[in-house]
Amino acid sequence: MSSESLSAQRRRRAGRVTAWVLGGILILAIVGAAWIGIRGFLAYQHLTSAQQTAGDAASALADPATASDLISEISADTSAARDLTSDVIWKAGEQLPWVGPQLAAVATVASALNDVASESLAPLASVAGSFSLDSIRPQNGAIDLTVFGQLGEAASDGAAGLGAAVSVIDGIDAAPLVSPLRDAVGEVSTLLAQAHGAADALNRTTALLPPMLGADGPRNYLIVFQNNAEWRSLGGIVGAMVLVHTENGQITLGAQASSSDFTRYDEPVVPLTEDEIRLFSERPATYVQNVTQIPDFTRDAPIIQAMWQRETGTAIDGVLSLDPVALSYLLEATGPIALPTGDELNSETAVELLLNEVYLRYEDPAEQDAFFAAAAASVFASLTSGSADPAALVAALGRAGDEHRLMIWNASPEEQAVLDGTTLQGVLGSPDADVTEFGVYLNDGTGSKMDYYMQVGAGAESCTPGEVTLRVTLRNAAPADAASLPSYITGGGSFGIPPGEVDTVSYIYLPAGAELVSATLAGSDESPGLGGGTDDGRQVLTWTTRLPPGAEITIDVTVAAPSAGEVVTRLTPTVHGNNAPPVCQNL
């Protein structure tokens, strides 16, 4: 055979080998793709099932007993999904262009969810089966503290694991992902964040409630009720007060008082900063009705503590604040409560009865105080009797906290730190660096209870990169004949303000790092006549208004602000809430 024939034969043989190799590679690619596709489809089914179940589990963590079966279901699905997305072929596919990031994202989600279900929430599920919210229902005025010890470690592990999973999912680069997968990753992130919030709340509760209920020794807590009919920055003047004693879970009602029992001091009971004195004068630390003029409960509560001790000689371990709107939420859990006066206090009538009708009925402040004391004692008796629905009570407290109507301060720094980052602290400013926060804090200047009729709207009216405009509208919705109302409601002209008209001093806190661009009255060429100062490094504008019945006024405040994700407005909790949701929410 000639050399040319041998060469041709070799080329044909080499060609066949190459074809076989290429064919083999193609077959492996097809098999690999099919393998990944089938396993990906199965993993998708398990993750979808886990996601649907997780939607229920996030809310069920408020009652750990109901979460037990759901957590087991999630664990089975996420374990299967992790196994389907962690073999050698899948890992190899993650190295490919375009498809690789898709596979890696699915594997990351499956692994993170499985870690949460099998390692973080499984311990909680194991103790939750024997737990029920009924177990924290008061019996003979006492709460069994042992249930918190059973849940404590598991709740801590669950919160930590969910927090880690949120960080992992948030670390996925969404840019190269196809739209459906990008949306799915976003939904998982949202669900995990919600579940983390529920687990974190449970963890904080199990850590804080036992000492507050006297597990380590007797405690005294002062509960103050802010009166939204006479505005102060955090809600209203401090009116009625009750002292609550706790010891080994037993809760008893102690002394009751009203603001009229307190002295007007010549000197502040605690030192104020120069910024505070320039903005508010020394009044917040010299008269109890003005304490919550400073829009930070962590600063206000120590003032209340000092005033109470000075008046009564009793040291208190903490201060809690509620308003009548928050009380109406609690009444949804307790049901209607009969008062000694023959009135019925219920969720529908409580706000009107406590903030308006009582002043129409009783002209004598002493009779008003007696009514408030009877109402407080009746509500306390109902709550400690165990008659309230525990799940509804938890929901009511959560709603009140979200609306800044419930605040808690503990004298113990370690216990107060448990509340770090929550609305319950009532601290000035958002702890989230990605939030651009305005503050609109309203204060009555009339010396009246006319703020019951006032309506307010505050929110971001327009947002562009680096600039945002806040719009605040105040309206006096009192009846046209408001001047004929009892003088205790109108103020009787005691501060030179005609009856029926309302003076309001608004403190408008600009976002941290923001610079004022302009402030104008809507529909007017007049200057708003602003004053101001600084507080905690933030610029503050003071805006004083006077409105007769039926009148309203609007101010637009534009600032240059560092670009951040979310724009929020924290507003004084009022009777009617915020009547102007923001037009824009992101810069």
Explain what the structure shows.
The chain is an alpha+beta fold and 587 residues long. It contains 15 helices and 16 strands. Strands 3-2-1-4-7 form a five-stranded mixed beta sheet, with helices on both faces. Strands 13-14-11-8-16 form a five-stranded mixed beta sheet, with helices on one face. The chain has a four-stranded antiparallel beta sheet with strand order 9-10-15-12, with no helix packed on it. Helix 1 packs parallel to helix 7 and helix 6 (146-170) packs antiparallel against helix 7 (179-212). The chain is globular and about 85 Å long. The model is unreliable at 14-36 (pLDDT under 50).
Question: Characteristics of this structure?
Answer:
20% strand, 5-stranded mixed sheet, alpha+beta, 587 residues, globular, 15 helices, 16 strands
- As a percent range, the share of strand residues is 15-25%
Quaternary structure type: single chain
**Shape verdict:** globular
Please list the strands of the largest sheet in the order they lie side by side. 3-2-1-4-7
Distance between the termini: 82 Å
Low-confidence stretches: 14-36
Average pLDDT rating: 85
SS-derived structural category: alpha+beta
**Number of helices, counting only DSSP H or I runs of 4 residues or more:** 15
